Task: inverse folding
C-alpha cells in the first residue's frame, strides 16, 4: 500500500471513530435518563465519559496522521 492509500485509510478510520463517538454520546444520554437501562450508577457514567474522550483523541490523531500521509504521498509523487 502506498502513502496515499494509507492516508485515505487513516481518514476512513477517523471518520468511523468520529461516528462511534456520537453513537456513544447517544448511548450515554439514554443511560443517564434511564431509557435503556434502569440501573445506572456513577461509575458506569464515568467510564462512558472517559471512553468518549478516548474516541475523540483517537479520531483526531488518526485524522492528522491520515493528512500527513496524504501530503507525504503527494510530495513523493511530485518528485517522480
Result:
Amino acid at each position: 500500500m502506498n502513502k496515499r492509500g494509507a492516508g485515505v485509510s487513516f481518514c476512513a478510520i477517523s471518520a468511523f471513530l468520529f461516528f462511534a463517538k456520537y453513537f456513544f454520546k447517544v448511548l450515554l444520554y439514554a443511560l443517564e435518563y434511564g431509557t435503556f437501562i434502569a440501573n445506572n450508577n456513577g461509575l458506569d457514567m464515568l467510564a462512558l465519559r472517559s471512553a468518549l474522550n478516548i474516541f475523540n483523541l483517537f479520531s483526531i490523531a488518526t485524522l492528522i496522521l491520515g493528512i500527513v500521509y496524504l501530503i507525504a504521498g503527494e510530495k513523493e509523487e511530485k518528485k517522480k
Summary: The radius of gyration is 18 Å.
